[in-house]
Amino acid sequence: MSWLIKKMYFRSFMLLIYPIFTIFFIVILNPERARSDTEQNFFISAEEAKTYGIIDRVVDKLPSFSQP
Fold first, then answer.
1. From the CB of residue 10, how many other CB atoms can be counted at a distance below 10 Å?
2. Model confidence band, residue 67 (pLDDT cutoffs 50, 70, 90)
3. pLDDT score of 23
4. At what angle do helices 3-28 and 31-38 cross, to 10 degrees?
5. How far apart are CA 4 and CA 12, in angstroms?
6. Contact by Cβ (8 Å): 27, 54
7. Is 41 exposed, middle or buried (CB count within 10 Å of its CB: 0-12, 13-18, 19+)?
8. 55 Cβ contact list (under 8 Å, min separation 6)
């Protein structure tokens, strides 16, 4: 793979990932914890994500929509 292709992959990766990390650091409000959690595979359940502060609520069941 040429250096130009690697550079393009890196640039597109950073354009995608940087905003996600920025939001993550703001939500967590603990940069050291957020940094350590994003440096490894960090898998959590929906309830743990709510406790962690990443999400506001967990949807257990999709709402049913009535047809007019």
1. 10
2. low
3. 74
4. 140
5. 12
6. yes
7. exposed
8. 46, 49
- Between 4 and 68, name the one with better pLDDT: 4
List, in order, residues 6 or more apart from 37 with CB less than 8 Å away. Answer: 28
* Residue 13: exposure state from Cβ atoms within 10 A (0-12, 13-18, ≥19): exposed
Neighbours of 50 (CB within 10 A): 14
pLDDT tens for residues 10-61?
888 778 877 777 777 776 677 777 777 777 777 888 898 888 777 888 888 8
